[in-house]
Amino acid sequence: MATIYQVSEMAGVSLSTVSRVLNDNDYVSKKTKKKVLEAMKELGYQPSSIARSLASSTTNSVGILVSELDGPFFGQMMSAIEEHLRIAGKHVIITPGHSDEKKEKSGFEFLIGRNCDAIIAHVEAVSNEYLIELSKGKTPIYLMSRYVKEIEENCISLDNVMGGYLATKAMINKGHKNIAYIAGPQFKEDASNRLKGHKQALAEYNLTFDENLFYIGDFKETGGSDGLRHFIQNKAQITALVCANDEMASGAMKYAREHGFNLPKDLAIIGFDNVIFTNYLYPTLTTIDNPVPEMGRAAANLVLKDIYKKSGITIKHVFQPKLILRDSTPDIN
Amino acid sequence: MATIYQVSEMAGVSLSTVSRVLNDNDYVSKKTKKKVLEAMKELGYQPSSIARSLASSTTNSVGILVSELDGPFFGQMMSAIEEHLRIAGKHVIITPGHSDEKKEKSGFEFLIGRNCDAIIAHVEAVSNEYLIELSKGKTPIYLMSRYVKEIEENCISLDNVMGGYLATKAMINKGHKNIAYIAGPQFKEDASNRLKGHKQALAEYNLTFDENLFYIGDFKETGGSDGLRHFIQNKAQITALVCANDEMASGAMKYAREHGFNLPKDLAIIGFDNVIFTNYLYPTLTTIDNPVPEMGRAAANLVLKDIYKKSGITIKHVFQPKLILRDSTPDIN
DNA sequence: TGTGTTTTTACTCGCGCTTTATAAAAATAT
DNA sequence: ATATTTTTATAAAGCGCGAGTAAAAACACA
Question: Of A35, A83, A114, B21, which residue is the least packed, with the fewest Cβ within 10 Å?
Fold first, then answer.
């Protein structure tokens, strides 16, 4: 691998001259610049970003810490952030935290150790205190889908309480009274907030929250099927099912169909997140839109503004969910 | 940020001693080791992997270059590779190539510049020649879902021709004669091989390949709907539809339903890849299993063996697809 | 021709760590 | 007690680059 030194030798100039044409800021005469450029091409020179980082303590790369590498939700998120950052010439380094405290912490450490200029994290298992403490370090931390008051300027979040409220209210408005709820793991902030919204909606319409119509799932397809099985086995009389995310809703739909339900007539189902495939289910799934791509762009913009000093950017920190009515929640008569 | 120097000072030993306990290979007495470890903890010391890489020219990280960050196929792939590598203490750096030649090349450059110990790539736009040339460089390249003869030892691939063959043959076996095919972008090797398999199956059963029953889609949901629309508008009389991947199949299903088809009776549909959501569609989608997770693990194992000298590993290079029969392809009578 | 400016280039140090070669200390043998 | 081996620690060089400072070259003006 050619180094800057060999380039300088070949071009007959000093090291720093080469360095200067690399970062093309300082004064270099056109003639020498050309010479250097030619030498670079000749040698197939590729600057080592590692060495660069060490010397300049800036890497032009931002770390992304997500829960999972797969799953439509995180896919959209990573994609939106990366795309937006790439335009600005920044790169991303992605690592998963698997919703596990240890792994999330080790993910942060990895990213910090790699001198990321900033980290955008979607973490669920670490405590707020940890995050606040971490934010005092040299690497700025930005949080996706999580609101921590002490560092709210670094948070991009969705109003999940409102989302949960909208979902259940939609069912109530359709005329349902026996509404079951499949929640997500309650240590996850968005899951608990969505549940909170569900309860608010029930309360507003004088419906009581019934433990028998409540199940905690895993945010995956299995959570939906397990939840519905639970309700059926307990002979719960329900006409509507609210799921805390789309994966669980789709799992519930499949389970329902396999157990003789005629969808959507026998059971109305609503999801949450509006991931792509909801629109390809049958019946198409009513859900709550979670504007992940926009939020990803907002996070990217935030680091562009804070870290890379791009001007003229205004950031929205809290996003609003929106009800998307489709076929899985028909009017009842 | 604490450096190795401050640790050495605090522990009252030399730099290199600290370095040795870090890499705990050479001889260090238990006593000094303990002293150093304590000093590290006290200072909250975190070794800078950047500096480490520069000095040792090894990073314990492997680059992953995928087409897209979202999409169930790539999600599974990234996840499988990462999980397997993480066990061995290696990290991944992921970057997308967007099936675009320039972007794929820049992805390679980025990863190489970051001194990845190896790169696992799923690329579609760059030429075989480029890949062969690249393989001569200092960073070993491994290819997912692509077979290049000259570097076959570094390839993990699926027998896509066989997959395409199995899909169409399944339809023929169900009794269909008017079988339409929605292919993927033909510059992608897997897409063109699947098509090849389709043609083989047709030939084997003396069915002629009909341009009117052929459409090239984009491997996304829209490709499926566009394709089916095309056939309908051209008044093609078809009873079966073979799609080159699951996303297109799901798009086609939706379009079919919206246009009065009674699925699966009026139109049998088969996909390809067996991504998770196929099992949650209605009717559940018959498809060709693409063992992505296994292939991901194989790729990870390959670099573990080649690069990190882990022993006792045998690698399978070519994987076989498998027909997964579900409800979208009923028997016809 | 000499002095003052401006433009261009070269040197040197250091980023935080690994890695020799080498010295010092401890353990063992004679 | 001394020589010899084994174990442990040190010092110094260098990985590839950036940045600040010093020096050289080019130019301008009188």
Answer: A83
